[in-house]
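Our consortium's second objective concerns turning raw sequence data into structural hypotheses that experimental partners can test. To show how far this objective has progressed, the report includes one record in full. It was chosen at random from the queue rather than selected for favorable results. The single chain below, 195 residues long, was entered without modification.
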Amino acid sequence: MTRRFLFVLGSARSDGNTELLARRAAEQLPADVEQQWISLAEHPLPDFVDLRRDSDHVRAPSDTAAGLLLDATLAATDIVIASPVYWYSVSGLTKRYLDYWSGWLRTPGVDFKQTMAGRTLWGVAALADHEPSVADPYVGLLNNSAAYLGMRFGGVLLGNGSARGDVLRDAAALARAKEFFAGEAPPARFAHASA
């Protein structure tokens, strides 16, 4: 299968530090790798309604934000969550997108868990702290989501920045961006699971 990257932009503003860092990393991908970029701010999802106990799960039409994101997610071999670190985790826009994964698990004809198995989840984030451990909840959320679905996890590319463009002065993050998507990501594992 030809690699196809979906970049899910979870910031409330365009051209923020997270997006700038994600675009620097994406520049390193080979020319034959397809890229799709979707801004959650430009395609807002309605509040997620948990229908786990109901039987009326339906597939969202492709002309809705949910349908667009479902189709793009299913078509991707690699999904990049590009969300700034907000309150130590992903943005609200991003969390809502991930909540929709719960519904897609139960949508007839989608086979979401089976489709996602073996695909790769990545994260790119800017944070306003110089201590990377501040982003541990963010990394854990993505790793555990990937582990649950049997995906690979490529880790999270972190950069420092608060004011627009700050991340472009983070030389270490820009150096990591050059190699971030190189190589094959390992299968995701829950911290409590044995290797």
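The partners drew two points from this record. The chain has a mean pLDDT of 93. The CA atoms of residues 128 and 162 lie 5 Å apart. Both points have been shared with the crystallography group to help prioritize constructs.
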